[in-house]
Design a protein that fits this description.
The complex is a heterotrimer of chains A (374), B (236) and C (498). By secondary structure, chain A is α+β, with helices and mostly antiparallel strands. Chain A is built from 6 helices and 26 strands. In chain A, helix 1 runs antiparallel to helix 2. The longest helix of chain A has 14 residues, at 7-20. Chain B is an alpha/beta fold and 236 residues long. Chain B is built from 9 helices and 5 strands. Chain B has a 5-stranded parallel β-sheet with strand order 2-3-4-1-5, with helices on both faces. Chain B has helices at 28-35, 55-66, 96-109, 129-136, 148-161, 168-175, 182-199, 205-214, 225-228; strands spanning 44-48, 70-72, 86-89, 113-117, 140-142. Chain B folds into 2 domains: 24-142, 3-Layer(aba) Sandwich (Rossmann fold); 148-227. In chain C, 49% of the residues lie in helices and 9% in strands. In chain C, the strands form 2 sheets. A 5-stranded parallel β-sheet of chain C has the order 5-6-7-4-8, sandwiched between helices. In chain C, strands 1-2-3 form a 3-stranded mixed β-sheet, covered by helices on one side. Classes of the chains: A alpha+beta (374), B alpha/beta (236), C alpha/beta (498).
Chain lengths: 374, 236, 498
């Protein structure tokens, strides 16, 4: 195998693949990237057994062949090469080392046999559709924060994506929850997704896809089965296993009869929460919301450090229902208001029941937040 | 200290699938009886065993095979014989006259009746003599107390059903400290579910200790409820 | 070649490798069963099906995620090893969730546990109803209003074939009632025997005699031809009457009743307090008697004692023949059981029949019920009927309750047995003379109660649960090597359990 490529092109591709390889992996070959030249086409492949990424790289290939080399090392080397360098990689085959040359710099790396490199088969992926990159980005960004990081509940360690109907419209929904809050975002259903099964995409996959989305502007092709999902964006194909679990019946925890409605500017609210909660020494930073007609008082206290309050009056809030006191973790409030640009609407029931939060001007996203005792 | 954060009220649906039932020496005889409906004397059988021993699960499996619904003893109302077969859970809580009429009506048509309760029907405090004598004449299948292997499998199954990932080590840590009954396994799985969601930090020792603390041996366990009931048995 | 799916099972081409694959799979299962034992196999592995083999990979299916995970972590390696022993080129056994296509779960309930069903399955059941059912709340509308109904003509079809005069065992307590019943069966509506009122406690044979009369009268070979008999329980009379009222079909109901030659109402006491139904019964009764038809009625008390029944009904009921069935005697009970055993073609030890006749004195139903249970149990589990199995099978009716042993009781018994002080059970003393009995008591507490190990430890002087575990395994080890010690412990266990 032998080829030459621009440093910038190589670096970009290596950045993608080295992000997928498992850094702490005890199986050495999983730390490697497979570099292959077939019929003049160069591909990089990396996998952690859950996710596999394959990237086509523009290069001048002069000899077919393949080898696997440590992804992180290779990335580090290429990163430190001068900007406009042309890099040559040469692997004569077998156990021989991989030679890398750029200008006057040369190194050789120990390789592992390609036969040991695990191949991840996608199987047949019967459901295929495509989404504009910004749409997929929106689905991910507005739900990702609610993904559970608690390993016990593995079925919540991802975003649930399924096709359904919402107010008579066919939609593609992304849902995430950690048991304390829930985010539900929907977009019009793309063609081809109507019969797709509900799937849970793992958190790591979401993160990898999200990183790639920063670099693409065209449509992302998605194909999936019960057990696998594949994203194709430009020259990159990312295939991932799905979480083998059943997502909870989330619709049942979304209240429909919350009638105490608060509207407030998202930024006003977020800033007030940040200022008030700063005093709290607890990890959860509880903030109490005390509501009366057109008045919101936020408060927090800590036995060691005292108390803090902030009032938002009728100029900045609207609230017409009866008095209410309810507490939330500051972080949970901020995670949601971060997703809302202008005005946020809270719909409360009481101090212990689920609260619904939405963007006043955009109802495609809905958040449910559980309060805490204050 | 219990966390102050409330958790979303996700519901759990009971899994009464046949493939989920755990076969074990303690329920082997009951399984054989259930598979041989045509051999039941008078087409009747009573399943009995302690709480959590799998009676409801077996009742649902059997009812599903017969193509009948599972009726609940409390609030049972006789309105005529059931079409194919009758399965009554917690039959000891059924109004006596309604249960009697159901038994009679089904017997007239030769349709099978399966009832389940925590005590053998002969030991229920039945008042109606007609019902009492039918209950005492009834064939029974007892589910015996579970052995350690079944408890281990059951806890594991219940956690799996709730999709909770708990290591084998943690499961045995719990089992070594819990009452050795199926009911305790059910309660433990429910507590693990509830507490991990509330604390939000996985299956920690803090959660494990709280589960065990919540499931101390009930003080009245030695007093088997069956022995505390007035017994009307037609013996010398 | 691709064996995916269940197709290989149906592939009968002898030259094909498929049957061979099925054979290998059967062998793997057999070896597995041998290695893990019957119980474990049944619990975990019986629901495995093979999906197929592809290259070096065998795919095995389990019906639930839980089973798949369990089998994967506990038996995955063993499965691979066993496959490799049969087919060396298999490298991996993949476990997935699913079930073999087209597989019918019939009889999986006790698959591999139970003997094959002895009779055709469900042969006497009526076709299933496809009607969607809801478990609760129950409809309070009587189902009789439904034209589909369960109603069968109230004729001999509902008669119990076991209830004939031939099978009725006669003894002192029931000979008069039986003679009256025979008389009615021979000469219905004869003077002095209409109505025939049979009464007695539950389960003494009233229903049996009524069915026996009906059998005789509806016999196609009866001299003078068979008669139309309407037999129903009072409760059925009641709900059919109510249903008729609701369906505006009372006229049909009346006509149907009045068209029969003989009307039999069982368990009349259930009409007590049901005024409208009583009224209807009274009119039907009169109409039939006036038309020279036979009435047979049973109840748990004599007409005079049936309080809650209208005076005029009581009078009419008592104006024919009133015959009672007395409680059984020991002799009658033994002959009832003997006759029943003979009919079933079973040789049951007289000891067992006498034991049952001695223990179950309340009524014939319970007596026969006990015998039925014994016979069914013996058939199903292929065991002979002995005094021992009788006591075991019928323990729920022979004993008022199963004693649940307490830790305190175990401690007391064990202390007595080894002649140490009860306080030594909880004392910190470690001398072997007290430590060993204490360990035995802990062992028995683990075996005979469902208390948690920490709780057992607490009862033994606040010891740790690991001490209990140690005691349990120590006693187990000792029992395995010292026969005398094992006997001792077994003896204690039996004493505590009895």
């Amino acid at each position: 195998m032998k080829f030459k490529a621009d440093r910038a092109i190589l670096l970009r591709a290596l950045a993608h693949v080295q992000s997928v390889v498992e850094k702490r992996n005890t199986i050495p070959i999983l730390a490697n990237v497979m570099i292959a030249v077939r019929d003049g086409r160069l591909t990089f492949t990396a996998t952690d057994m859950e996710i596999a990424i394959v990237e086509d790289v523009a290069a001048t290939a002069t000899r077919n062949g393949a080898c696997t080399a440590p992804a992180a090392t290779l990335y580090d080397i290429v990163r430190k090469l001068p900007d406009n360098a042309e890099v040559e990689l040469d692997h004569p085959g077998g156990d021989a080392q991989l030679a890398l040359r750029a200008g006057r710099y040369a190194t050789s790396l120990v390789v592992l046999p390609t036969e040991d490199f695990p191949s991840m088969t996608a199987g047949t992926l019967p459901h295929k559709f495509s989404l504009p990159a910004h749409t997929l980005r929106a689905l991910i960004d507005r739900t990702k924060f609610a993904i559970s990081t608690e390993e016990t509940r593995y079925y919540l360690n991802g975003i649930y994506m399924h096709a359904t109907e919402s107010d008579g419209q066919k939609v593609l929904r992304a849902v995430a929850t950690d048991g304390h809050r829930l985010a539900r975002v929907e977009e019009p259903l793309p063609a081809g997704a109507g019969a797709m099964p509900g799937v849970i995409m793992p958190r790591k996959t979401i993160n990898e896809v999200r990183k790639l989305l920063d670099e693409v502007s065209e449509d992302v092709e998605i194909a999936l089965s019960d057990t696998r999902i594949q994203f194709k964006a430009g020259t990159i194909t990312l295939t991932s296993k799905l979480i083998d679990g059943t997502f909870p019946e989330y619709e049942r925890v979304i209240p429909h009869d919350n009638d105490k409605v608060l509207r407030v500017g998202s930024k006003d609210f977020a800033d007030a929460v940040a200022r008030v909660s700063a005093i709290s020494s607890e990890r959860s930073k509880p903030v109490k919301l005390s509501l009366a007609r057109d008045l919101l008082v936020l408060s927090a206290s800590s036995p060691e450090q005292g108390t803090a309050t902030e009032e938002l009056d009728g100029e900045r809030v609207s609230y017409e229902a009866g008095p209410l006191e309810i507490g939330f973790q500051a972080r949970y409030l901020n995670d949601i208001t971060d997703q809302i640009s202008e005005k946020v609407e809270f719909r409360f029931k009481d101090g212990s029941m689920p609260t619904v939060v939405q963007d006043v001007s955009d109802t495609s996203a809905l958040y449910v937040l559980m309060p805490m005792r204050v | 200290m219990m966390p102050r954060q409330f958790a979303l009220p996700f519901a759990l649906s009971q899994d009464y699938a046949e493939s989920s039932f755990l076969h074990a020496p303690c329920n082997e005889a009951a399984l054989i009886w259930l598979a041989q409906t045509q051999d039941w004397p008078m087409h009747r059988l009573a399943l009995w065993g302690r709480e959590g021993s799998g009676k409801s699960h077996l009742l649902h499996i059997w009812a599903n095979r017969q193509g009948c619904a599972v009726l609940r003893g409390p609030g049972l109302r006789f309105t005529g014989p059931e079409p194919v077969a009758a399965a009554v859970d917690d039959a000891d809580y059924a109004p006596e006259a309604d249960l009697l009429h159901l038994l009679n009506a089904m017997a007239e048509l030769g349709r099978p009746v399966l009832i389940a309760a925590r005590a053998a029907p002969a030991r229920w405090p039945t008042v109606l003599p007609d019902l009492a004598s039918r209950l005492r004449a009834m064939t029974t299948a007892e589910i015996l107390p579970a052995d350690d292997d079944l408890l281990r499998a059951l806890l594991s199954r219940l956690l799996r059903e709730r999709q909770l990932r708990v290591t084998d080590e943690m499961q045995s840590w719990l089992r070594l400290r819990l009452p050795r009954t199926q009911q305790a396994m059910y309660q433990a799985a429910a507590q693990v579910d509830r507490l991990t969601l509330l604390f939000g930090r996985g299956m920690t020792m803090q959660v494990a200790r709280a589960v065990v603390a919540a499931l101390q041996d009930p003080p009245a366990l030695d007093e088997d409820f069956a022995s505390a009931l007035p017994v009307s048995v037609g013996l010398l | 070649m691709d064996y995916r799916g269940a197709s290989f099972v149906n592939d009968v081409t002898p030259s094909s490798a498929a049957p061979q694959l099925a054979t290998i799979w059967a062998r793997v299962r057999g070896r597995l069963q041998q290695q893990v034992g019957e119980v474990e196999y049944r619990t975990w592995l019986r629901q495995m099906t093979m999906a197929g083999i592809s290259g070096d990979e065998v795919t095995v299916l389990l019906p639930t995620r839980f089973l798949r995970d369990w089998v994967r972590s506990h038996y995955g390696e063993l499965l691979t090893t066993l496959w490799q022993a049969e087919t060396p080129n298999v490298r991996r056994v993949v476990l997935n969730v699913g079930s073999e296509a087209g597989e019918s779960p019939a009889n999986a309930l006790a698959e591999s546990v139970s003997p094959a069903p002895k009779t055709a399955e469900l042969h006497y059941f009526e076709p299933r109803h496809a009607e969607p059912r809801t478990a609760e709340p129950r409809s309070i509308e009587p189902r009789w209003a439904d034209p589909r109904g369960d109603e069968r003509p109230a004729d001999a079809a509902t008669l119990d074939p076991r209830f004939t005069f031939e099978s009725f065992v006669v003894g002192k307590p029931n000979e008069f009632a039986c003679a009256c019943a025979r008389r009615v069966a021979e000469l219905p509506a004869s003077q002095g025997f209409n109505p025939l009122f049979l009464y007695g406690g539950v389960g003494l044979g009233k229903t049996h005699l009524m069915h026996a009369i009906a059998w005789e009268l509806t016999d196609p070979k009866r001299p003078g031809g068979p008669l139309t008999v309407t037999y129903m329980s009072a409760e059925r009379f009641m709900y059919r009457f109510i249903a008729a009222i609701r369906a505006n079909a009372t006229i049909d109901f009346k006509e149907q009743l009045r068209a029969s030659h003989v009307l039999m109402i069982d368990d009349l006491q259930f009409l007590v307090g049901k005024d409208a139904t009583q009224e209807e019964f009274f009119h039907t009764f009169n109409a039939l008697v006036d038309a020279g038809r036979q009435i047979v009625v049973s109840a748990d008390k004599s007409p005079a004692d049936l309080s809650g029944l209208e005076e005029r009904v009581r009078t009419r009921l008592g104006c024919g023949m009133v015959a009672d069935l007395h409680a059984t005697t020991f002799e009658l009970r033994v002959s009832i059981l003997g006759a029943k055993a003979a009919k079933a073609g079973l040789d049951i030890p007289p000891k067992v029949l006498e034991f049952l006749s001695h223990k179950i004195t309340s009524n014939v139903r319970e007596l026969e019920g006990a015998l039925n249970r014994l016979i069914a149990h013996a058939n199903l589990f292929n065991r002979s009927i002995t005094l021992e199995t009788t006591q075991e099978v019928l323990h729920d009716i022979l004993k008022a309750h199963d004693r649940r042993v307490t830790i305190e009781e175990i401690q007391r018994r064990v202390a007595e047995h080894y002649n140490i002080r009860l306080t030594d059970m909880a004392s910190p003393r470690r001398a072997r003379a007290v430590a060993r009995p204490r360990q035995v008591a802990m062992y028995l507490a683990k075996q005979l109660t469902s208390r948690s190990l920490p709780e057992i430890g607490r009862k033994f002087g606040n010891r740790d649960h690991t001490t209990v575990m140690h005691a349990v395994s120590r006693v187990g080890e000792l029992m395995a090597v010292e026969a005398a010690f094992a006997e001792d412990v077994e003896l204690l266990r039996r004493m505590l359990e009895s």
